Amino acid sequence: MILTSHEDMENTDSKTGVWLGEFTDPYYEFIDQGYKIELASPQGGKPPVDPMSLLTENITASNRRFQDDQAAQHAFNSTKRLEEVDASAFDAIFYPGGHGPIWDLATNHTSGRMILNTLDAGKPVAAVCHGPAALLAAELLRPSFLAGKRVTGFTNTEETLSLRASNVPYELETRLKDNNADFHSATIPFTAHVEVDGLLVTGQNPLSAGPAAKALIKILEGQPVGVS
């Protein structure tokens, strides 16, 4: 699982980072199915956590489980630097969201190469909410990578409704479409929606994090996967 290291937003003193539930929901989906997880980030160490994801109304059952899980907290607080990770040793990559990835992972060449090499090796890659911004780094390294790929991510409408549209350098939905991705989303904002295009899995928003992980697990286990 690759997490953002970026916490600053534009035109505000508010902070961002990892949306905690988008890490914990998938993390425990994988753990409960017996998968071993390694955590990495551009800068290593403890990733910043979006304070809004810690508000009571945004706390999930997996958040509460994480609070009592010393092993998981130790792993989260001591992520490896991306350059220290051999992506070929893993069966899949998962990118949680939070706004941070639209700054650092969107332009991180190490992460972009990991995405391309993983997919080229016939292994799946998944990203949720603003995590699909990491796909933009793969696009930088391989122009037209996104062309025609069926994806989702945090929508322009959701960005506006979350009152953060003026605090980000670009809207993810627009940037994905600008790179000719085939973007789809749920009819109702902030409801779960997952897209699967071959080995690429994307989730729209926080509620899509667990379902995106489940879709990735189905691919790993050779089961048929639909969209939702």
TrEMBL record:
InterPro entries: Class_I_gatase-like (IPR029062), DJ-1/PfpI (IPR002818), Prot/Nucl_acid_deglycase (IPR050325)
GO molecular function: glyoxalase III activity; transferase activity
CDD domains reported in the protein's UniProt record: GATase1_Hsp31_like (cd03141)
Keywords, ordered alphabetically: Glutamine amidotransferase, Lyase, Stress response, Transferase
Residue span(s) of domain DJ-1/PfpI: 22-210
Pfam families reported for this sequence: DJ-1_PfpI (PF01965)
Entry GO CC: cytoplasm
Biological process terms in GO annotation: methylglyoxal catabolic process to D-lactate via S-lactoyl-glutathione
Domain of life: Bacteria
Residue intervals passing through the bilayer: none
Family: Belongs to the peptidase C56 family. HSP31-like subfamily.
Protein name: Type 1 glutamine amidotransferase domain-containing protein
Lineage: Bacteria, Pseudomonadati, Bacteroidota, Cytophagia, Cytophagales
